[in-house]
Amino acid sequence: MAGGSSNYWEDLRKQARQLENELDLKLVSFSKLCTSYSSSRDGRRGDSSSDTTPLLNNSTQDRMSETMSVEIEQLLAKLTGVNDKMAEYTSTPAVTSLNAALMHTLQRHRDILQDYTHEFHKTKANFLAIREREDLLGSVRKDIETYKSGSGVNNRRTELFLKEHEHLRNSDRLMDDTISIAMATKENMTSQRGLLKSIQSRVNTLANRFPAINNLIQRINLRKRRDSLILGGVIGICTVLLLLYAFH
């Protein structure tokens, strides 16, 4: 009976040591994964072409961390069960004489279980804090980029509005210049018309006062009309001759 009990105890201790070794490896890997998760975000905030940038993206690391968390929790549960069996064994009457040594061994395994449990929860909490912080920073960076992009569009629109406003100002300035030229031309023509009327009035006054001058003016006007008729006839004849010559 004692031999069978001793073998049972040794089997439990063997299971406990095996689970503790697996937990130790898993916790080291889990800690490295959490550290690389933070480093990957830092690398992406820096130069994305750097050789130190991790190959795994954050979504892959999230899935790996969740998987490793489940595996570690399962190992902790198994180690807890083994420790409970060891505690039951130490309380049996058959091992009373060895109770002190067994309790010392059991306490050492319990301390290891407690340390691993504490380390796991601490690493997991740190990982969740890092992921939450990085998600928040990522959201802030996204908002900043969106704002910058929107500001660029707004700046472009503002630039177009300013150009269009400048075109309108130039058009208004040209219109004002055109109106000013038209008004000046109108004033000059009015002034010239007044001057011509004044000259005509003086000529008529002189003609009325001096009949000889009036007679001379009428002859001049008559000759001008006659010359115009003669010139028109000559031009008409030349035109007809040119047409006839062109057709022949």
UniProtKB/TrEMBL annotation:
Reported function: Involved in transport from the ER to the Golgi apparatus as well as in intra-Golgi transport. It belongs to a super-family of proteins called t-SNAREs or soluble NSF (N-ethylmaleimide-sensitive factor) attachment protein receptor. May play a protective role against hydrogen peroxide induced cytotoxicity under glutathione depleted conditions in neuronal cells by regulating the intracellular ROS levels via inhibition of p38 MAPK (MAPK11, MAPK12, MAPK13 and MAPK14). Participates in docking and fusion stage of ER to cis-Golgi transport.
Protein name: Golgi SNAP receptor complex member 1
GO terms under biological process: endoplasmic reticulum to Golgi vesicle-mediated transport; inter-Golgi cisterna vesicle-mediated transport; protein transport; vesicle fusion
Family classification: Belongs to the GOSR1 family.
Region annotation Disordered: where it falls in the sequence: 36-66
Membrane-protein topology: Single-pass type IV membrane protein
Subcellular location as annotated: Golgi apparatus membrane
GO cellular component, one term: SNARE complex
Xref: InterPro entries: Golgi_SNAP_su1
Ranges annotated as biased composition (Polar residues): 54-66
Entry keywords, A to Z: ER-Golgi transport, Golgi apparatus, Membrane, Protein transport, Receptor, Transmembrane, Transmembrane helix, Transport
Gene: GOSR1
Quaternary assembly: Component of several multiprotein Golgi SNARE complexes.
Molecular functions per Gene Ontology: SNAP receptor activity
Coiled coil regions, renumbered to chain: none
